[in-house]
Predict the structure of Histidine phosphatase family protein.
Amino acid sequence: MAQILTCLALPAPACVRHGVFPDASPPDLPPGLAAHLPQTGTVLWPAESCPAGRTGQFHPAPALRTAAMGEWQGRALKDMPATDLERWVSDPDFAPPGGESRSMLMQRVAAWLAELPPAPRHLTALADATVIRAIVIAALGGTAAMLPRLDIAPHSRTVLTRHAMWRVSCTGTPLEESL
């Protein structure tokens, strides 16, 4: 029997929609997301602690947290030096001061995916769209340089299955507008 990993991309924080790097606080659980969660099974949450009022099927999975932005968190893109932004976009090994590079994010996520135990059979991971891109690329044996080449939108579903190895079943399927 194959293991199934369903990844639900959380909505982007409001600050990102306004061109500001997010802080490291855990994401909010959108109210409409409950309709897309399994009735039973394990739900992995990208923080040290589960969302308020959610215990039982929710389990902390800090490896699924978004990339740390270090000194850039809370800063507007328009206020950043153009050379720093160019390096951040073009060099997967470049990290904001005190933050995490795309290569570091890929290593963290690939290690998490490789270490997932074969049980339970059904897992649901809630994470930022960038983290889900890293999960897909890790499953395909790719590198951090591939992250900008894959689109995974917020409010979408990506499914992987594991037989002898991870396979990508579908990516970026939109969830209903209820979120």
Summary: The radius of gyration is 16 Å. The chain has four helices and six strands. The longest strand covers residues 166-174. The CA atoms of residues 82 and 161 lie 41 Å apart.
